[in-house]
Amino acid sequence: MRYYSLSRQADTVDFRAATVAGQAPDGGLYFPAAIPRFTPGFVERLPHLDAGEVAYTVLAPYVGGTIPELELRRICAETVNFPFPVVPVTDHIRALELFHGPTLAFKDVGARFMSRCLGYFSRHETRPLTVLVATSGDTGGAVASGFLGVPGVEVVVLYPAGRVSPVQEQQLTALGQNITALEVNGNFDDCQRLVKQAFRDEALRSRRHLTSANSINVARWLPQQVYYCYGAAQVRATTGQPPVVAVPSGNFGNLCAGLLAYVSGLPVAHFIAACNANAAVPAYLATGQYAARPAVPTLSNAMDVGDPSNFGRILELFRHDYPVIRELLTGYSVSDEETSATIRRVHARTGYVLDPHGAVAFFALDDYLRRHPQAQGLLLETAHPVKFPAAVEPAIGEPVPVPTELQELMRQPKRSILLEPEYEALRAYLLETA
Ligand SMILES: *Cc1c(COP(=O)(O)O)cnc(C)c1O
Known about the structure:
Elements: E1 3-5, H1 15-21, E2 30-32, H2 40-45, H3 51-63, H4 69-79, E3 86-88, E4 93-97, H5 107-121, E5 129-134, H6 138-147, E6 153-160, H7 166-173, E7 179-184, H8 188-200, H9 202-207, E8 209-212, H10 218-221, H11 225-239, E9 244-248, H12 253-263, E10 270-275, H13 280-287, H14 311-317, H15 322-328, E11 329-333, H16 336-350, H17 356-371, E12 377-381, H18 389-396, H19 404-411, E13 417-419, H20 423-432
Parallel strand pairs: 4-12, 5-6, 5-8, 6-7, 7-13, 9-10, 9-12, 10-11
Antiparallel strand pairs: 1-2, 3-4
Bound molecules: pyridoxal-5'-phosphate (PLP).
The site of pyridoxal-5'-phosphate (PLP) has 15 residues, from helix 12.
Keywords: Lyase, Pyridoxal phosphate
GO biological process, one term: threonine biosynthetic process
Pfam families: PALP, Thr_synth_N
């Protein structure tokens, strides 16, 4: 499989080069030159296949021989070695729970696959690889956990002091080993600015081999197809219908992976792009015109993205054909008031506790199903509610119990290095520890 840059100035590359580089040298996102098709037999057998087998079948054409079969099978099995239950919430809505991985969010799937691929590709490197990543909460934890104990790789995560939830902070700071947390006295934009400056610093890069764990990396994007295959097949097996799938969306990597699986032949009736007040894509779907906007803060803060990177991949997947995209995809922008009210209402009626991102998707899906009463809905629950207590607990009027898997981590000491939001401070740290 070859990958070309959506900016079309750079050369095409294989999976290995696309994964190691992250972004093409012309600044574009990498995109597969041909979309593989699933065999009809694969789609029929899906409900009976184990997740590792599904992952291998879906991903092998994309990896295209850059990782030997046995190694890739092992990586796939490790990527999806936790459950993805489909849980009924109402008569017509099921939740595909993607939060049973080590950091309780769907980003574990992409981060685990990418970390193991990078570990394989850099196995003969003598210089350690430093993964430098800025996080507003979920990304850093998933990346840190994915790379924990991977030989030859060090992870340095920058996060904004006081702006991540207690669970998220433990997931960044309590792992130890090859993971270092830098607690920046500033906001997420400061963290991102420092990281970008480090990547531009040639003198620093000659001393430390830096790579990003950016969400646009193909090795984070592609494996997300796997749980769509699994979830859609489960709904079809129980109801006889392909589901309407609602995806809480921010940077649109997750939804774009679902669309990719659909183009490859996965039966899905319709997709819903469920957004908070950051509504660039819903506005495009309503009008055919796209305009980036400044990001605004919301309760579902992992989706506070004003100009989603993966939107370009969605356009490319459908050859910029707006009528085709509009036929398959409906956009919603859900307010914080509607999000809180949805968490409260669903909990009161069903006992199910949504996280704020899942609540955005529930609200959108519920509205869509009212107009399409024969359809079956599947919402992607992208994080465990315990990660967002400030949004969830006031709505349900009680604390969210900490899952047993997490209790041990919550007892570990927090270890972080405080950093002023100035580039010299980050640079000094990276040079001292090189
Ligand atoms: C990252 C994240 C999202 C948004 O996913 P995208 O692929 O960026 O659209 C949604 N929900 C949660 C909980 C997240 O962490």
